[in-house]
Amino acid sequence: MFRSKLKTIILALSVTMMAIALISFPQESVDASIRGLNMWWEIVFPSLLPFFIVSEMLIGFGVVRFIGVLLEPLMRPLFRVPGVGGFVWAMGMASGYPAGAKLTARLRQENQITKTEAERLVSFTNCSNPLFIFGAVSVGFFNNAKLGIILALAHYLGNFTVGLTMRFYGQNKGTINQGKKRTPSFKQALSVLHRTRINDNRPIGKLLGDAVMSSIRTLLMIGGFIILFSVINKLLFHLGITAFLASGLEVILLAFHLPVELSTPFISGIFEITLGSQMTSQVQEATLMQQAVITSFILAFSGFSVQAQVASILAQTDIDFKPFFIARIFHGLFAAIYTAILWNPVFERFYNSEQPSKAIPVSLIGEDSWLQKWFAVLTEIGPLITIFALLAYTILLARKDSKY
């Protein structure tokens, strides 16, 4: 009872302090809101919307179950999750935060995975997409496209390691009955695909409409969290709380031979990855390797902003958030360690020499790389895609309401 009352008092005081801070720093709050809004409607919304809609369609048509049957021999021994986890993992890496959480929650709602399997799966299927790592961080902040190779390698190797680690989570808890173990066949997978499609008897138009509605609803929630945490991060900085927390972090940074000037960017990155990565790239006292180590941790930890988005999605199911949070700490540590380990044998050897490297195609990381071009195009047409999608959502919502 006492803990419950204490929690209530702390939450009430926190919200009150935030309200006072908003009144005290109105211009800073507006600037932070605009910054968060721009990031959402230029990059996040247009890049995630197609993946969300296609994922919903693939689940409805039974393609996810089809993939799950074929990937069962790979995903079950490695990560102790069903084969459908392979689809979630691939979509999570391709589309970025928080696609893995959304798809995991969707599979749990359909009872395709158990609660424990869902908690294992969500822990390693949420990661940053290559477009953000190469386009926004490497090119946009560091002006060094080749740095993206190290950041991406460390990020996805760390993610894989988290999956292997979390397979030991909930060892004594049950899994969905798999029946007799046998090698899955293509014919069996097709049979599962057909049964799933028949059981979901929605017409194609209805399925597409539901996919669009569900995806945009989730993205609106994501946008709210991005704007909120952008404002919170700015207010914490102006209130001196970021500097206070950073001062306590300086001892830890010195222990790892990192400059104390990285403490403030690190704390900012704990709350919001974009601002933290940008601030890290501007620290002149740190070497590029030191900046990369901190940025890797920030990207892997994903920030309280992304974690709040995931918590909101998981709250719609019985999936516990705690394993996901612990996995984010593991991912941050693994990614930072991999960056330090791979720096000399990979970056210094192949990408930081005067000789042009042939290890990775120029079209991928060069100054005119397709990733860089795609990021620039997305920034230009992103707002138009967002406005068009929101108009479509409004029309669909109006039609739905008119039927009742």
Chain-wise SSE layout:
Layout: H1 2-24, H2 26-61, H3 63-79, H4 84-95, H5 99-109, H6 115-124, H7 130-141, H8 147-166, H9 186-199, H10 204-238, H11 241-255, H12 263-271, H13 273-281, H14 288-301, H15 303-314, H16 322-351, H17 362-365, H18 370-402
Relevant terms:
mainly alpha, globular, Gate_dom, Spore_IM_YlbJ, Sporulation integral membrane protein YlbJ, transmembrane
Please characterize this protein's 3D structure.
By secondary structure, the protein is an all-alpha fold. It has one domain (about 25-165, about 185-400). The chain is built from 18 helices and no strands. The two termini are about 45 Å apart. About 45% of the residues are buried. The model is unreliable at about 355-365 (pLDDT under 50). Keywords: Membrane, Transmembrane, Transmembrane helix. This is Sporulation integral membrane protein YlbJ. It comes from Cytobacillus dafuensis.
